[in-house]
Amino acid sequence: MRPMAAERSPGKGRRRPTLVAVPPTEDDRDRTPGRRAGDEDASAGSAASTKGPGKGAKARQAPENASTTRSGAAEHTAGTGTNARSGGPEDATNTHTGTAHTGPGGDPERISDVDEWGRSQHLRDILAKLYDPIYDSWFRVEWEGFEKIPREGGALMVANHAGAIPTDAPSIMHGIERELGRPVYGLADEVFKKMPLVNLGWSRLGGVQAHPDNAYRLLREQQHLVMVFPEGSKGPGKHYSERYQLRRFGRGGFVQIAMRAGVPIIPLAVVGNEESMPIIAKLPTVAKLLGLPYAPITANMMLGPLGALVPFPAKMRIRVLDPITLDVLPDQPRYPRSRIMDTSEAIRHAIQEELYDMLRHRQSVWFG
Asked: What is the pLDDT of residues 106-138, one digit of tens each?
């Protein structure tokens, strides 16, 4: 404030101060205690909201623009980080130019056809051409009840599993993809993840680590066909004398997954996979040293080193059983344990009975 003007009081020797109103300057307003320039702008903005645009409106608009700019930059940064995490180097954005690579289908976030699970449709197409003659001429695969496999929507397919190097999984997946044009994802044991090159090849062909969350996303959220072998490594690790005798289906985890995802279970019975690469002996010490579930000696090895990898041309038959619809609500936090185990055992029993029936009607291992 400016100095007060003094006035002499009549009849007395003292001066009594008299306040004179002096208009404040711009600097005075800025220095007024308890008041800031931002407050004045805010009040001016409130007045402007009724009287029309003015300085207050501009002052209030500026922070919004600034926050929008910061938000856009944050979204850009977050988006780039997400892309890098979801797809790795293949999905990385070009940081030098600031533009994203464009891959098949015009997707700016992916430079290849490898999806979030590691599956490559391009590689599948190449291997399909190589596997076609094996499928048609070597194993001569025949299906029964193929029409029971849905053409859309999620479904969990369950089958028996056999052979030192199982040939049933690629044959089932190849046949469905070729006839229906739908990708099939196979849930695999963690042992595949620990094998160099094998883990990469398996994931590129549609293999996914067997985990409830992975299965749920594939079935419930993405509505894919998923293949699972409940016997686990005990199936292909059976001795030839135990062929077509199904092992226990674990703890029925596949039933709980189907309940939670709200999808049907489609059982499959496969004949011919046991004879494609039969195990005549096992080396438990070698398996323990290598960290493998089993180290087999197969009948194929009698043909020399190449026989360790080449299966016998046993004719393969695949029978699709009636889909099993579980009458429960999906996405429940818990399901009755007894119901899960009873359903799992019923499915195992149904597949076992179909295997016995198919074997009774089979005339030859090689010609069916």
From this structure: 455 555 678 888 898 888 899 899 999 999 999
Residue pair 294/242 in contact (Cβ under 8 Å)? The answer is no
C-beta separation of 45 from 59 below 8 A: yes
The pair of structure tokens assigned to 151 is 């053409």
Residue spans of beta strands (DSSP E) within the chain: 6-8, 15-17, 142-144, 155-159, 184-188, 207-209, 225-228, 265-271, 279-282, 296-298, 317-320
- The rounded distance, in Å, linking the Cα atoms of 49 and 57 is 7
Exposed e or buried b for every residue in 73-105, given b needs 16+ CB within 10 A?
Answer: eeeeeeebeebeeebeeebebeeeeeebbebee
CA–CA separation, 315 and 323 (whole Å): 25
Closest by Cα among 257, 233, 271 to 343 = 257
Give the span between the Cα atoms of 195 and 159, in whole angstroms: 24
DSSP notation for 344-356: HHHHHHHHHHHHH
How many Cα atoms occupy the beta-carbon half-sphere of 223 within 13 Å?
4
pTM: 0.68
Cα torsion for 335, 336, 340, 343, to the nearest 10°?
Answer: -120
